[in-house]
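User: I'm writing a short report section on ligand binding and want a predicted complex to refer to. Could you take this sequence and cytidine-5'-monophosphate and write out the structure as tokens? A short remark afterwards would be nice.
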Amino acid sequence: MIISIDGSSGSGKGTLARGLCGMYHFKHIDSGLLYRKVAYYYLHAKEDLKDVHSFIKNIDKINLDEVSESILRSEDVAQKASEIAVHEIVRNYVNDEIKRLVIDQSSEYKGFVIDGRDIGSVVFPNADVKLFLHASEDDRLTRRIQQNIELKIDTSHVVDLQNRDTRDSTRKIAPLVVPSGSVVIDTSLMSIQETLSKAKEIIDMNL
Ligand code: C5P
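Assistant: Sure. The structure tokens for the complex follow:
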């Protein structure tokens, strides 16, 4: 079973995805983290790989798992992720990785919860359950600041969230949209528990 969760930064996708995976013993794939890994290594690439195309063509030579999550969660890395995510070659690389992870682990897990910006619209348009999370700007900012405090990372760039959301929603390839057939959940006034219960209700109808 594939469950897609799309939405903008700080809408609560990660928290919901982790909660659902705990509930159903499904596997969580955080596509934003994959874009962040690519961005981090691209930021640190040698001069001859500063062209995105050359970088992606050589990406198999890099072990993308050597960087800690708190570094990947910084807003600097997120901004670079959003910048490189406009390139088709980057998106194709990440999408292939997501599909490979699903295939490789399909005997171990009965379901996958995949969160991002284009999961229900582009990567898995036939997902069994498609969720789209919406939250007010104030709530999203508050959550991101809270998450940064918990991860002990700088909160001063959180204001850049809006630039990133604008870029993510207006890019030509795979912009953030409400995928057709998705259920929109407005998490602004909902607790984590309420959001989980709502999502569970929808998933249970499709099990
Ligand atoms: O979800 P997260 O904030 O970690 O994503 C970082 C960036 O990666 C986003 O701002 C977006 O530009 C990009 N992204 C994307 N498509 C996805 C997931 C993330 O373009 N499916």
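A remark for your report: The mean pLDDT is 93. The chain is about 50% helix and 10% strand.
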